[in-house]
Amino acid sequence: MYYRTHNIICKTITLLLLCLAFASCEKAFIPDEDNSEEQGGNGTRHDVTIQTRATTTGTAFPLHITVTTRDGATVATQDVANASEKLKLKLQDGDYHISVANSIDMSNGWSTTPAVRGGADFSVQGKAATVNIILSYAVASVNVTLDGVAAEATNVSVQLSPLSNSLSQDGTYSGSATVTIPCSKTSAGTWSTRTAYVYPSAADLTNISICISTHSGTETYSVVYADRLTAAVPYSFTGTYKGGESGMSEITGDIAQGEWKPEVDGTFSFGPSGNNAFDNMPDIPLVEAGSLPAPGTLWNGHVVMLQLSEEGSNPAEMLLMSREEWTGMTSAFYESDPYVAQNIAQQYAEDELTGWHIPTTDEARGMKEKWGGNALPNLNAALAVASLTQLTATDTNGNVRYLCNDAQSTFSFAPSSSITAAGKTVKTYRLRVVKRIRFKLKNS
Predict the structure, then answer these.
(1) For residues 92 and 170, what is the distance between their CA atoms, to the nearest angstrom?
(2) Per-residue pLDDT tens over the stretch 350-378
(3) Which of 52, 133, 134, 262 has the smallest C-beta neighbourhood within 10 Å, fewest atoms?
(4) Alpha carbon distance 97, 170 (integer Å)
């Protein structure tokens, strides 16, 4: 929908949203090294070498490193000046967590420098060790260009909402904010935000507003993108405003490939005759039903995991989980073949249903919160009755980790577990793919 306060004509909008998530080793790979130790007042200490490896280009240094015990006590902090610099610490035997991030000013909701982060759990056990940390972006890159703005325009800006407004040390986004990114006039006569970096979306719907001011007032057009801006996905939206009551804008996409995930193209129209919504959103099937299937049950033989829409919604959106489970999986950081999980998701079909995907971070979080810990036996009982593969929380090696976030992160159904970045050498992850579907109640 759009809200119009004064007449100003704009012609072309190009929006590039490159959502990039943090990525890091979930469990640090610690190779054997020469045993180097010293005797301290609290016991033997061993050399631990910290090496950062950036999966992105143009990583902003310096990086700040914090090492804590598993109960959160800080044992070491230090800055790293560049990607090749190694940090060496002396630590006692024990379990630790390391967090790495650069210091970025996001007080206005955006920055001109990209934030990066990484983290890992690691153990020191009787010998020297090396911890390798994978760094990646923790922000989205936004570039907006407006063409055909009226000559009398004095101020142009773009608003995105709701976006997350904070990032914790463990990589969790929180908060909700409307971020205003100012535009400046270019030598070509267009208005542009240049490149700004923002946190990812905080909701399943993303509002994009274009505000153009003159001495007589401001005109604002708001377009709803019916999905969240997710990590590491490049979005390219282009809009054209032709003016008049018959005016029509169209959005077409063109994404540069590189480090990002597969592109997402979008088209929308805005203005007096525009529909002010995206025209080519991914198709979510709509089926009619006499009643809604409950999470933890089967619908037409498909496993229903979550209700994603609010109670009372009609249609109601549900999340299905695949009957099939894959074991011995590697992550998107596994260098010899980073696309194993993605290929499985793209090819998977369950009876008449296609279009399955690796769970997003939010979908994984919802499944973990709904069915993790003591609730898992209830779901597994329903799976067992249908002779389907049950979910596993722990095994002899500890918490069982399932892939999510395009195989860049993992989650577990074990109690008190968290979503963490996937490791580059682990070959024991599991995978269940998911699909969204909408149910419309009959006679309503």
Answers:
(1) 23
(2) 988 888 999 988 899 999 999 999 999 99
(3) 262
(4) 10
